[in-house]
Design brief:
It is an enzyme of class 3 (hydrolase). It comes from Paenibacillus chibensis. Keywords: Hydrolase. The protein contains 9 helices and 14 strands. The protein is α/β, with parallel strands linked by helices. The protein has 2 domains: about 150 residues, Rossmann fold; about 100 residues, Hypothetical Protein, Haloacid Dehalogenase-like Hydrolase, Chain: A, domain 2. The strands form 2 sheets. An 8-stranded mixed beta sheet has the order 5-4-3-2-1-12-13-14. A 6-stranded mixed beta sheet has the order 8-7-6-9-11-10, covered by helices on one side. The chain is globular, with a radius of gyration of 18 Å. The termini are close together.
Length: about 270
């Protein structure tokens, strides 16, 4: 089978634990691209801190960002599709995060906002620096000129375990997703990596069985199950491995390189 569309998660998949892309994985992706496959990054990051990896590899095309909430053209920076959230319905969640002293950010396709940039804790600021982001101060919701596509809560894992359990019992207005050990995302109910990948494949005239996807966390399950071949990293939780067709090496062992070598270049 020659896969025509290859979706790669970024953190914990494409990048190692130092947030670095290895030269070996980069060269393998370039070789797969030269063979005719289209590469798309499918990530919880926004386009502004995921498109640079496409440029580093030398790729054009698309990034599926914000866990599927916004798909963006790498070259033109055009938002080709996004799932807009009901901002009024977000207010109780934001109030709850503030009451619980849980840090959160509000995202449009290209911008990120927090309650107070100046008041961010050191570990919060460090997190944004690791992800190559600097948020701005949050305006009033009615002042937003662009759709809000994602709200992310950030805290210790045990705090987010309790948060997820609590808000998952509320009226099901959003897709509430554990997108990382220290993150919980709220998105439009139809927004997911799998749904965005499905839309992109249809737009490109590519069948599901011609799609290969590689990921490592719960937010990747929808794209792993949509793709004809879903591959989990060895550093994935057991539930993610169970949802995948295959398991490759970890992100610190060039698992993306190993998978592409086996299924696209052999």
């Amino acid at each position: 089978m020659k896969y025509k569309l290859i979706a790669l998660d970024v953190d914990g998949t494409l990048l190692n634990d130092n947030h670095e892309l290895s030269e070996r994985t980069k060269q393998t992706i370039q070789e797969v691209s030269r063979s005719g496959a289209e590469i798309v990054l499918c990530t919880g990051r926004g386009p502004q801190n995921s498109i640079p990896f496409m440029e580093q590899i030398g790729l054009t095309g698309y990034v599926i960002s914000h866990n599927g909430a916004a798909t963006v053209d790498v070259v033109t920076k055009e938002v080709v599709h996004q799932f807009a959230m009901d901002t009024q319905a977000l207010i109780p969640y934001m109030d709850y995060f503030r009451e619980q002293r849980i840090h959160f950010d509000v995202n449009t396709a290209f911008h990120m906002y927090v309650d107070s940039v100046e008041g961010m804790a050191v570990e919060v600021r460090s997190m944004y620096e690791n992800f190559l982001m600097l948020p701005a101060n949050l305006p009033q919701l009615q002042e937003f000129k662009e759709p809000v596509v994602k709200v992310t809560a950030f805290d210790h894992a045990d705090v987010l375990d309790k948060l997820y359990e609590e808000i998952a019992q509320w009226k099901p207005e959003f897709n509430i997703l554990r997108s990382g050990e220290y993150f919980v995302d709220l998105m439009h109910p139809d927004a997911s990596k799998g749904n965005a990948l499905k839309q992109l494949a249809e737009r490109r005239g590519i069948l599901p069985e011609e799609v290969l996807a590689i990921g490592n966390y719960f937010n990747d399950i929808t794209m792993l199950t949509f793709a004809g071949l879903g591959i989990a990293m060895d550093n994935s939780p057991l539930e993610v491995k169970a949802a995948a067709n295959e398991v490759t090496a970890s992100n610190n062992e060039d698992g993306v390189h190993e998978a592409l070598l086996k299924y696209c270049l052999s």
